[in-house]
């Protein structure tokens, strides 16, 4: 593996703040002291690679993968698709994307979720795929429901799908959430509001992509993901004394 | 008008939330058998060269309470300081692990091989370390930190040298507590707050 060069430093202004009193759990879980910044090292510039052999045939089909194809999940059938690019607009091929979500009623299949909306016996809520050579990925799923959470007196999460991406180096590691165009709960959500730049929050909202929708089958939403890029190193590998 | 920059902006982070395990550790979440093979279950396979060690610890919040829902990932070199994929790297070391704080006790354990020293850019050697990334409910962007070892010489490490307040270096050093066993506690906030990086 060649050294791919130093990572472009993160622009922390586009990311959420660590401490936000409206998202109450962040109050005791946010560092008080500044991050120590420095140029990336091989530990950040390399990262785990996952082969296509890891992925089973239904891993990116959340409608069918919980039952192994025996019975489909209940809900609005949705294709989530897009490309993974880096900041230099280069595709990120062969990288692992994992998603998880609640069912159509807003209930997670997790031992700690006791929300009164029922589980769907045919829905697990977990998927993964590896981007193709052009950085493209897709998932077939049902649209998750909004759900209440104990934060302020009456907070509800907008419909969202959690996304985890590796890129090709550990310093690119990213977890985020995809929201759906037109959901009025986005503007009321304290977690979405941890992103202080409204324009950046918009980049987490997937537009309806009617052209990719399949008639009489599913609607599509497009969610492109951008990871940290690498600095060009043409003039950086100078000999000592030059 | 000046030329346009063709740079894109990184996708903003969001918290992994309380149910991160569904997506990343299905068995832990109570959904075993979801995948034939889960990601990052062990950073080493049988036959890995070097000293096999166990690092245990807890992730404490600002009140001193250990998180029961934290998820951690580690990334490291093999015993010779080579990362998976590099020429001559130990094929039995994937170097990547995903592990969780116990839902009852809050304790985590990472069983791995002790990494060798890795050069920084410019050839300066770094002391042996494991890169760590922590996500959880209430953490809006994953926290990057490192595990060093108290039985290694950390005095010339270029990353530790960036830390102005020398007592804070101790927050990154795992303590040997037994044969092949280390303790590494992470404090998100307050007294003894762990050093987190932006690299």
Automatic annotation (TrEMBL), chain A:
Residues 9-41 form the Protocatechuate 3,4-dioxygenase beta subunit N-terminal domain. Keywords: Dioxygenase, Oxidoreductase. It comes from Actibacterium naphthalenivorans. GO terms for molecular function: ferric iron binding; protocatechuate 3,4-dioxygenase activity. This is Protocatechuate 3,4-dioxygenase beta subunit. Coiled coil: none annotated. InterPro entries: Intradiol_dOase_C, Intradiol_dOase_core, Intradiol_RC_Dioxygenase, PCDO_beta_N, Protocat_dOase_b. Its EC number is 1.13.11.3. It is an enzyme of class 1 (oxidoreductase). Residues 46-229 form the Intradiol ring-cleavage dioxygenases domain. It comes from the Bacteria. One of its GO terms (biological process) is 3,4-dihydroxybenzoate catabolic process. Gene3D superfamilies: Aromatic compound dioxygenase. Belongs to the intradiol ring-cleavage dioxygenase family.
UniProtKB/TrEMBL annotation, chain B:
Belongs to the intradiol ring-cleavage dioxygenase family. It comes from the Bacteria. Gene3D superfamilies: Aromatic compound dioxygenase. InterPro entries: Intradiol_dOase_C, Intradiol_dOase_core, Intradiol_RC_Dioxygenase, Protocat_dOase_a. Signal peptide: none annotated. Keywords: Dioxygenase, Oxidoreductase. Its EC number is 1.13.11.3. It comes from Actibacterium naphthalenivorans. It is an enzyme of class 1 (oxidoreductase). One of its GO terms (molecular function) is ferric iron binding. This is Protocatechuate 3,4-dioxygenase alpha subunit. Residues 33-190 form the Intradiol ring-cleavage dioxygenases domain. The keyword Oxidoreductase applies. The keyword Oxidoreductase applies. The lineage of its organism: Bacteria, Pseudomonadati, Pseudomonadota, Alphaproteobacteria, Rhodobacterales.
């Amino acid at each position: 593996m060649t050294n791919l060069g130093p990572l472009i430093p993160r622009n922390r202004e586009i990311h959420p703040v660590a401490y936000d009193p409206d998202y109450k759990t962040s109050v005791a879980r946010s560092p008080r002291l500044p991050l120590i910044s420095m140029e990336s090292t091989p530990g950040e510039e390399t990262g785990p690679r996952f082969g296509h052999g890891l992925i089973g045939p239904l891993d990116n089909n959340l409608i069918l993968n919980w039952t192994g194809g025996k019975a489909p999940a209940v809900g609005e059938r949705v294709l989530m698709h897009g490309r993974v690019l880096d900041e230099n607009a280069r595709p990120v091929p062969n990288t692992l994307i994992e998603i998880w979500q609640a069912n159509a009623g807003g209930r997670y299949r997790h031992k700690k979720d006791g929300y009164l909306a029922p589980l769907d016996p045919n829905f697990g809520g977990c998927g993964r795929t590896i981007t193709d050579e052009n950085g493209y990925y897709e998932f077939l799923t049902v649209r998750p429901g909004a759900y209440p959470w104990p934060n302020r007196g009456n907070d509800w999460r907008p419909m969202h799908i959690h996304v985890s991406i590796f890129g090709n180096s550990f310093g690119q590691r990213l977890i985020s959430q995809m929201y759906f165009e037109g959901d009025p709960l986005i503007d009321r959500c304290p977690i979405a509001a941890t992103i202080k730049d409204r324009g950046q929050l918009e980049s987490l909202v997937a537009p309806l992509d009617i052209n990719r929708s399949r008639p009489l089958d599913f609607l599509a939403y497009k969610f492109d993901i951008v990871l940290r890029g690498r600095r060009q190193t043409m003039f950086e590998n100078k000999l000592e004394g030059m | 008008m000046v030329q346009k920059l063709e740079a894109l902006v990184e996708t903003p982070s969001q918290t992994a939330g309380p149910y991160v395990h569904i997506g990343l550790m299905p068995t832990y979440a109570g959904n075993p058998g979801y995948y034939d093979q889960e990601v990052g279950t062990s950073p080493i396979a049988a036959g890995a060269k070097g000293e096999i060690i166990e690092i245990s610890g807890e992730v404490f919040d600002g009140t001193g309470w250990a998180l029961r829902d934290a998820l951690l990932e580690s990334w490291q070199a093999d015993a010779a300081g080579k990362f998976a994929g590099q020429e001559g790297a130990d094929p039995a070391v994937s170097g990547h692990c995903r592990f969780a704080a116990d839902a009852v006790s809050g304790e985590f354990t990472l069983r791995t091989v002790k990494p060798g020293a890795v050069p920084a850019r410019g050839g300066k050697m770094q002391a042996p370390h494991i890169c760590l990334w922590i996500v959880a409910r209430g953490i809006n962007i994953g926290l990057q930190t490192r595990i060093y070892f108290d039985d290694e010489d950390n005095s010339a490490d270029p990353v530790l040298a960036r830390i102005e307040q020398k007592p804070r270096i101790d927050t990154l050093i795992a303590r040997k507590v037994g044969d092949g066993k280390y303790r590494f506690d992470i404090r998100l906030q307050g007294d003894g707050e762990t050093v987190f990086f932006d690299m």
